[in-house]
Amino acid sequence: MDKIKDTYNRPIISLRISITNRCNIQCFYCHHDGMLNSKEEITSDEIFQIAKVAKNLGVEKVRLSGGEPLVRSDIVDIVKKLNTLNFKDISITTNGIFLDKYAEDLVNVGLKRVNVSLDTLKPETYKCITKKDYLSEVKNGILKAVDVGIYPVKINMVVMKGINDNEIHDMFSFCKDNGLILQLIEILETDNCEDNNFNEKYHFDMTPLEKEFTDLASEVTVRKFMQDRKKYFIDGGEVEIVRPMDNTKFCENCTRLRITPEGKIKPCLLRNDNLVDLISHIRSGDSEKDLEEIFISAVNSREPYFIDD
User: pTM score, two decimals?
Assistant: First the structure.
């Protein structure tokens, strides 16, 4: 069927479901994917029902995130149920700590891709960022994911001035040598940290790096529906640079809709004042048609957070 579109003619291609706010590390820069802090979690059956409504309206892809999605003991069951809906793509964003435990089971029930948040290859820097000592577990999980056939495995590296900006080339070599794709993420200014001078202290400008990669690359491609993000192919490896989303280009090409851990539709990553309740209608036994109408109303409420005057 045709994809559902908002009033700005943006198709909804991807559904991002945050299945928990719980996490087993404490990254000091974390903005919790724009989610409100909540201890409530939708069940695996409710996740399936929400995804089914989205699929009926033409959504093609589902990504599970958190918090840390692999802290849920029913994560394999969640992916297994989603796979029965025949999405083109089911993926997970994870910190990788439990990936060694779950990778094989997840790929066997339909997981296609995984993004692993890993900002450093140095144990002392990892502990500085996360407050934990799980670096070896994360590395093992990444290699296990590759070994069981998950592809692509992408590494999300948030680059921070004075913290890990001197590790970019080492991380690229690690990714290239292990068949991984590196995504270098420019720090997002956030209100969810204790440091009022956070952005000034840690922001690392990617502009010179983009020029360097352009000169080195044998090929450069542009991902239109990912805010014209560029992918650089260098010496057999792949690297992308992810710039902050506070711009009109990101909003213009936004094809994602989000679900919060407590089961509300979040039409815009950068807003929490227009959430649409869906879960209470599911729990009240509303018909699938009624749920679709609620979903459509949420899509119709979408408007670009940043827009050209």
Answer: 0.93
